[in-house]
Q: What sequence folds into this?
C-alpha cells in the first residue's frame, strides 16, 4: 500500500487505460493512492484501495448519470488532493467533480490516440491543471503537452 501526505485518486477505465495507469504507479510512490476503475482489478497488491464505478459513454445518458453519482460519492468520500486519469469517461467525470473541491488534476491522454486526442481528452482540456499527450506530434504549445510516454 502506498502511504503519504498527498491523497491521489488514480482513475482509469478498464483495459488499456488501466494498464497505462499501472505503469504510472512508480511515480506515485510516497502518496496515499486510491484507485478507481470500471471493473474489479484482480492484480492489485493486498491493501491497495479500489473503488469500482459504472462505465458509461455519451450515447447512454442513464449510464452517465449513474457514473456521475457514483464518482461523486467516491470524490466526497476520498477528498483527493490530486486526481490523475488516463481516461476515459470516468476520469473526465472525476476531474470535473474533484475540481469543485479544490483538487489539482492531471489528464494523460490514452496511448491509443496516436493521431488525435480522445473525446474525453479534448473535454478535459478546460478542467485539467496539467493536460498531457503521450505522442510528441499531437502536442501543441497551448496543450496538450508531451513530457514522455508510459510505453
A:
Amino acid at each position: 500500500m502506498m502511504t503519504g501526505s498527498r491523497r491521489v485518486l488514480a482513475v482509469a477505465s478498464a483495459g488499456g487505460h488501466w494498464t497505462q495507469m499501472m505503469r504510472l504507479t512508480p511515480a506515485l510512490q510516497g502518496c496515499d493512492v486510491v484507485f478507481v476503475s470500471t471493473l474489479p482489478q484482480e492484480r492489485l497488491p493486498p491493501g491497495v484501495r479500489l473503488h469500482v464505478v459504472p462505465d458509461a459513454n455519451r450515447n447512454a445518458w442513464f449510464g452517465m448519470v449513474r457514473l456521475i453519482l457514483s464518482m461523486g460519492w467516491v470524490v466526497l468520500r476520498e477528498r483527493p488532493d490530486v486526481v490523475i486519469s488516463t481516461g476515459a469517461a470516468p476520469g473526465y467525470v472525476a476531474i470535473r467533480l474533484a475540481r469543485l473541491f479544490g483538487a489539482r488534476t492531471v489528464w494523460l491522454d490514452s496511448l491509443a490516440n496516436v493521431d488525435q486526442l480522445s473525446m474525453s481528452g479534448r473535454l478535459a482540456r478546460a478542467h485539467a491543471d496539467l493536460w498531457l499527450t503521450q505522442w510528441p506530434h499531437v502536442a501543441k504549445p497551448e496543450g496538450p503537452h508531451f513530457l514522455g510516454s508510459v510505453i
About this structure: Strands lie at 7-12, 32-37, 49-52, 82-87, 104-108, 130-132.
